From TrEMBL:
Keyword Mitochondrion: yes
Gene3D superfamilies in the record: alpha/beta hydrolase
Signal peptide: none
Designated name of the protein: DUF676 domain-containing protein
Organism for this UniProt entry: Canariomyces notabilis
Amino acid sequence: MTMSPASHRQYTKQNLGLFVLPMPDASWYERHGTPLLDVVAVHGLNGDYLQTWTSVSPTTGRPTTWLHELLPWKLPRIRVMSFGYSADILANTSVAGVRENARMLLSLLRDKREDEGDSERRDIIFVAHSLGGIIIKQALRIANNERNMYGGIADCTKGIVFFGTPHRGANAAKWASLIVGIKSAAFGTRPKISFLNLLRPNSKDLMDLSEDFRSIATKYAIVSFIEEDRINGLGSVIVERYSAIMELAHEEACMIGGNHSSMCKFDREDRRFDAVWRCIRRISPMCQGSPTPEAT
């Protein structure tokens, strides 16, 4: 939910859809074997399928997208995908809301897995930032309800890793509404009020969605990362602890360094990444005991 009143992201066919990210080299699967796990990432408000997960070095300017540059070195038998959807709160002309984007994610993921011919065997772990977690919860609810179309996704999903997902809303949504009200005229279009209204603290739609998910939550391992640092200029975190966790008996809740934007960006020297890749390995039975490339 990185909200900048001074700029907005352009969403085009270049960053909308479900993208399979490349492995560290072209012969990766020949050396390490076919993938056993699909890791599917979903960005949040004002996010991007790559930039949300990319750390840029302040000294060299070099970008690192940990999903496909770092994670395979720890879990070599994975395939990484990232879902991009229109999530700008300014200059957003898309009519798609949470449910529509959840269905789009399911349809695209089903098609990708059918193309591989192994949809009945390969585990799925979702990785979500902010609003992306709400979309994933909605998607899994739909998948469990509409098993004739998405039952394979419902059953193969092993867990979700949440980064700063506002399960009970966030005060920043109200703050963003104020910013949008002042700035939207400059962009000549209407803001994405539906997303902002959904993310207000304890909004009815958000509470209904969360309650619907609780009925299936025990089927999935849940890891919730909680942002530690305040946003400069705002004086507070975006998603408070009470909203970033669902208070489920089997939920693993962990504080992670960084603000709402930087909490899911890691480079090669970032020690925070260790906790992230290890929780993904714990969730997927197929990845446990698999040797890392450094050990082979």
